[in-house]
Amino acid sequence: MKKEAWLAAVAGLLVAGTIATWFLSRPSPEGLATAARARALLDRASERVVFYTLHPRPRPVDGKTGNPDLHGWTVLQRKAIDDRDMVQRIRDTVSDARTYGGTPARCFEPGLAFGFEGIEAVDFVVCLACQQIACFKGGQRADLFVLSPSGNARLLALYKALADP
Q: Which residues contact 71 (CB under 8 A, 6 or more apart)?
């Protein structure tokens, strides 16, 4: 193969890769719509954020777990987030269109949640296994969001950064 043909092939691959990367990094239409709903839920929530780790199975019917619960799941850890950069990272993640738009499974056994406290309390209860977020506003279920693979990875990174070992 001549040098010019080889350079043209490499240049073509670079252009194709750049276009593919750009196309794949764009949020899906579902992601854009879901992010708008997430931002609407957060509109009246303050900058105060609480991180929770949850037991993935709902609490027993008799309610005798001994631990506080969050919408039926036993809270294993509760941590107020005081770091402004981390608060912004959490808010950016749950309101970013690229976080949403995947295909859900059916388990919904959440392991983490974010509570946004303010005029209206909003909780994002997250199941990384089935890639869904159940949103609660004022104690009532308000919406269900489906995560994209990159959203799932971003939330897993937040979990690893915040959860006690």
A: 123, 125, 134, 136, 139, 141
